[in-house]
Amino acid sequence: MRLTILGGGGFRVPLVHRALLADRGEGRVTRVVLHDVDAGRLAAIGRVLAEQAEGVADAPAVTTTTDLDEALRGADFVFSAIRVGGLAGRAADERVALAEGVLGQETVGAGGVAYGLRTVPVAVDIARRVARLAPDAWVINFTNPAGLVTEAMSRVLGDRVIGICDSPVGLGRRVARLLGADPAEVWVDYAGLNHLGWLRGLRVGGRDLLPGLLADEEALGSFEEGRLFGAEWLRSLGAIPNEYLHYYYANRETVRAYREAERTRGAYLRDQQAGFYAAAARPEVRALDAWRRTLAEREATYMAANRAAAGDAGGRAEEDLEPGGYEQVALALMRAVARNERATLILDVRNRSALPVLDADAVVEVPCLVDADGAHPVSVAPLPYHAVGLVAAVKAVEREVLAAAESGSRETAVKAFALHPLVDSVAVARRLLDAYRAEHPGLAYLS
């Protein structure tokens, strides 16, 4: 089976490769094609993968190319993990927004809108090429903003594109372990949009264990989301929010923490990864060791500004430092589709009727039953009104981004910024768009 990874020079690609090396079942991936627009990054990651595969019998063959059409032809699965504008673009997104006193995170607020506006046209072009060159391939979208980009691609590929995210997986895993349950044996009641969802129950044998956790003050203070949001707020919600909801529930404090930080997250990653790629290009350096050190630093500093805003002065717990898990979700998804090994996974898919507040084509993040025919969203209990309001508002923003990307309309792009719950003024929205267009040549199409 052939897997093509778009953004194949990306820093997290070795995580996917590591999962593939551990997969010894029938119908496994035997060939990996890495595609990237940056030949230097491809070479660096190629070195990491070669070193990681040392001593592994029958490791998948890895090839690299900067030719997109060549990468897509003959693919059975396509992982889309691109970053339009690179980490320099992410750093600019954060800086421009903070200059206006609003949030510029890559998937949330003004930064997410800007990132979406320059990513959607590229993602749609990829979808059209997949439809032409690999019509039977399944596309698994890692590209952020994951829900928005998946919805854009689904307008071309239908249900053959599925978005994944590691945040719900990590949250469910932490809560399950805290409650003494096997994460593989629980049903996680989770619903919302990408980076905008709530864990509302965790069931083992039909029994919901979440109320017991919400009643336990000490337990609530012992894991990441508990320290981030505070026990009182979690009990008020009756749920555990995705960590990205901290940008909404503590927006003022988070913006202040970002402005006071030495560097934004995007600037930190830009500088850190530049160091890694430079080191990996030196023949005397073992690239895999350099990658592992960089990964450990990356995980230890994840959402550091949010923890500072919440008054959590401690570092991340050891069990939370294992990298995301999105590669395991991707592997489980591929197995379920390619081998008909049925699985239940939280994925970004077209809604159908899972969340009645949204239309059938809206991409949502909910539990899905996955088999050889793809991912089938499970209908979930209605969201409470406070969640409905946020979900509907953010989905409206996503739809304006899609409309602006299709039409090239500056007016529609301004509307996307202005309607976001974390942008507080139409005048600010106009200034944001003008500043982003000055920073990003990829937004020149908006006029």
What is the helix content? 40-55%
- Shape, principal axes of CA atoms: globular
Q: Which residues form runs of ≥5 with pLDDT under 50?
A: none
Estimate the mean pLDDT confidence: 94
Please report the number of helical segments: 20
CA gyration radius, whole angstroms: 21 Å
Strand content: 5-15%
Q: How far is the first residue's CA from the last residue's CA?
A: 44 Å
Strand order of the largest sheet: 3-2-1-4-5-6
Largest sheet: 6 strands, parallel
Structural classification: alpha/beta
How many β-strands, per DSSP? 13
Described by its quaternary structure, the protein is single chain
What characteristics describe this protein?
single chain, 447 residues, 13 strands
What does this structure look like?
By secondary structure, this protein is α/β, with parallel strands linked by helices. The protein contains 20 helices and 13 strands. The protein has helices at 13-22, 39-52, 68-72, 86-99, 109-133, 146-157, 167-178, 210-214, 217-220, 224-229, 231-237, 246-249, 251-260, 265-280, 287-300, 304-309, 326-339, 385-407, 410-419, 426-439, and strands spanning 2-6, 31-35, 61-65, 77-80, 138-141, 161-163, 187-193, 196-204, 207-208, 240-241, 343-350, 363-371, 374-377. The strands form 3 sheets. It has a 6-stranded parallel beta sheet, with helices on both faces. Helix 14 (265-280) runs antiparallel to helix 15 and helix 19 crosses helix 20. The protein is globular and about 50 Å long.
